[in-house]
């Protein structure tokens, strides 16, 4: 996918997130994020938007925490949707205006430039949180109204596995090494993540000899691996305990 494709996804998903969140109500629980209500979802996402934009407009090369993340919302409930929309619009504008040669801090491999990184990361951030808002509206961790396009979902799986879980730190560990293979049924893409007591190893192919093998539409795999959907829509072969390990420890908000 091109950077402009990710910006288009971000624009659409951010609009939908705000609309669905207002319909759900800011005090409604978010089933896929225990402890959160919709106001927490909007507060977190709006702060992330402003944090991401700050790198695009300053070119800062330093890692900085997200200002206020985990604290109470920065504005009253009545103002929170508008505050989210303002942060979303400013981020989209900054991405569209950013020089392709921009240099700034990023934190995952796989993108061709910092501008491409932030467009990709914020598109997936927003898509997953839009699903959170839909599940709050539904009152349960149900599949979203619309499936994600296969190319976007497969890219999100790659970002999650090769990016987030390719890093050294994290709680996703296993006392005895196990391997989970992931294969998309609707696009030519697959991965194997080997989880051990000291870290993880990811390869961009689905190993038929893995302890557990899951196959399905890229959209369903994307949502399962992000812990926003169960495995009912997937073809699962091998040791189900590996999926239990994933559901328990592979959590990113």
Offer a few descriptive terms.
253 residues, alpha+beta, Four Helix Bundle (Hemerythrin (Met), subunit A), Nonspecific Lipid-transfer Protein, Chain A, 2 domains, five-stranded mixed beta sheet, 10% strand, globular
Describe the protein's architecture and organization.
- The protein is of the alpha+beta class and 253 residues long.
- It folds into 2 domains: 3-138, Four Helix Bundle (Hemerythrin (Met), subunit A); 169-249, Nonspecific Lipid-transfer Protein, Chain A (2-Layer Sandwich).
- The protein has helices at 3-24, 38-58, 80-97, 114-138, 150-164, 218-225, 240-249, and strands at residues 178-184, 190-195, 200-203, 212-216, 235-238.
- Strands 3-2-1-4-5 form a 5-stranded mixed sheet.
- Helix 1 runs antiparallel to helix 3 (80-97), helix 2 packs parallel to helix 3 (80-97) and helix 5 runs parallel beside helix 6.
- The mean pLDDT is 96.
List the topology elements.
Blueprint: H1 3-24, H2 38-58, H3 80-97, H4 114-138, H5 150-164, E1 178-184, E2 190-195, E3 200-203, E4 212-216, H6 218-225, E5 235-238, H7 240-249
Helix and strand string, N-terminal first?
Answer: HHHHHEEEEHEH
**What is the CATH-assigned architecture of the largest domain?**
Up-down Bundle
How many E strands? 5
Overall geometric form: globular
Write out the strand line-up for the largest beta sheet, numbering strands in chain order: 3-2-1-4-5
The span between the termini is 23 Å
**Which class of the largest domain in CATH terms?**
Mainly Alpha
Q: How many separate domains?
A: 2
CATH superfamily of the largest domain: dinb family like domain
């Amino acid at each position: 996918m091109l950077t402009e494709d990710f910006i288009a996804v971000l624009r659409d998903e951010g609009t939908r997130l705000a609309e669905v969140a207002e319909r759900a109500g800011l005090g409604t629980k978010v089933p896929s994020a225990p402890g959160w209500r919709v106001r927490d979802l909007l507060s977190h996402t709006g702060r992330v938007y402003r944090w991401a934009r700050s790198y695009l407009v300053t070119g800062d090369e330093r890692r900085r925490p997200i200002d206020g993340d985990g604290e109470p919302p920065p504005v009253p409930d009545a103002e929170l949707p508008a505050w989210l929309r303002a942060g979303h619009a400013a981020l989209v504008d900054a991405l569209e205006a950013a020089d392709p040669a921009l240099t700034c801090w990023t934190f995952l491999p796989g993108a061709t430039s910092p501008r491409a990184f932030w467009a990709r990361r914020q598109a997936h951030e927003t898509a997953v949180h839009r699903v959170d808002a839909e599940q709050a509206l539904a009152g349960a961790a149900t599949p979203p109204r619309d499936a994600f396009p296969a190319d976007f979902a497969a890219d999100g799986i790659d970002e999650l596995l090769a990016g987030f879980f390719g890093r050294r730190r994290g709680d996703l560990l296993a006392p005895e090494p196990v391997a989970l293979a992931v294969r998309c049924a609707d696009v030519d893409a697959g991965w194997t993540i080997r989880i051990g007591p000291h870290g993880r190893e990811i390869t961009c192919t689905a190993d038929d000899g893995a302890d557990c093998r899951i196959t399905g539409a890229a959209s369903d795999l994307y949502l399962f691996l992000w812990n926003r959907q169960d495995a009912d829509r997937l073809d699962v072969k091998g040791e189900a305990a590996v999926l239990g390990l994933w559901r328990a420890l592979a959590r990113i908000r």
